[in-house]
């Protein structure tokens, strides 16, 4: 075989069943431009015309059978694996071990290879379209198509994401979880200084599509109860608490569409005494029965180009990649185009996150994605992938459709909580049911694939590789004190090797898993498969961190508004010497009102209820290196002298303090 090229004698097959061949010396040289696919496009037999066993015939530019021509095949881009090279590459010692363990079949079956398209007539019509382009212009047609693809995509992204205007100015394109008040205490600072102004401010925002698919992944304290898991965080109706997500609040107010996004004007109106929840436009907003220093209202605004046409761009994106195989790209070029178009579709269209920092970070993630997919392609994707030019219909249904399905995992998995290999995965019924159904299905499919690998003499090789990977993944974090985190793109990388056999089930799974890898990295970056203990909490309660305890005197509370606490029941009020804690942090209604070493605070400094009947919710935490640690459970107090602890114990000026 010279220059990795093999010459195959191809004869003409006539309608009467006879055939003719020509000696090699009588054949003309290959065409000087490109490979055989540029001038000898294969076609498939149409029933009733030629022999049913004929797979492909060389034809000239007018579609006539060329008698006595040789079809030049580039073996590095053939359909399916090269079984001879594979057999020679398989280590002999593995063969001996497999034979001794009786898991190597005799004889070993050759690797499967799809020879004919599922829809031969349709495939024949599609693959012959390039013949209508003059031979000398075919290279130009490919580059012209890519140029049109890039220009159309750029225009759609520009008008969909960056051309919005309103009569009140250019809107800020925000994500679905943007807030005016941060949940992290340090971000707003003492008395909310860094989250000002508290009133007399108006601005315009633009919201993306499908913000209802973005859910809060942790319960949060709101008043005396934990709320908001797997829902949009919206507190109030008409007037919204400042930590409510802006875009879901705009949907709740009826100003922005759930499926088409839109623009809205935000008016910051200052403090509010309470917030009433309601159900509207698919969102159940929550109640809060106390004061908060900042709130806002939402109103409609006259605008242009604010509608989010992401769902309209999806069929355009799919159409461009679906037509690309008609230009007969190599499998490598097709995978590059698929991954590139899918990545930027995810960044600008499919993922409801926007902003300059998001876009700039995406370029770094893009090159990481290319590196991942390049090695996955060389090792696992290429041996199973069909030639896009010969199998355009299968390529569309078995690769492109599941690929784009996986790109929308953000929406598909919205009802489930975020998970790693932690207790979080089994905390909520929806996620638990998904695991209970999904895991047996995945395991069953993997077992079927491994059984097929055994037929082809690959079982032991895969078992050894997977066994080593499992040992490393489970043992390594134990040795270095980390926790495991199974990202969904990691799951795609783990399962892709099982799609190495060329059959339609493998191709369907392969398209989905490639999309899973691209979506995961484009959305979250190439995150580590291991987490620190702090990262593994991800908003969960950390029971190992000490928390101060309230010791409030109802009489002192009613007399001068004094709230007191102590480091621990056995260690007195102050922080014991030698511990790595700097101070106490006290939050009242989720706003930090005090930070210092003294365990006492006068709520008269912030309370605005002259009747002293409104409830307030206080929590206290230790501060280390400038950051507040875990806050205690909330205690409900009224300036009139009533104290209600989380365990239900009540103390008032008419009864002794239980602590």
TrEMBL record:
- Report the domain of life of the source organism: Eukaryota
List the InterPro entries hit by this protein, alphabetically.
CRISP-LCCL_domain, LCCL, LCCL_sf
Which of UniProt's keywords are assigned here? Membrane, Transmembrane, Transmembrane helix
Q: Name one Pfam family in it.
A: LCCL
Q: Where is the LCCL domain?
A: 234-286
Which residue ranges traverse the bilayer? 143-162, 309-328, 333-351, 363-381, 393-412, 432-452, 464-487
Q: Enumerate the SUPFAM superfamilies for this protein.
A: LCCL domain (SSF69848)
Region: Disordered; residue ranges are 1-45
* Protein's recorded name: LCCL domain-containing protein
Q: What species does this protein belong to?
A: Powellomyces hirtus
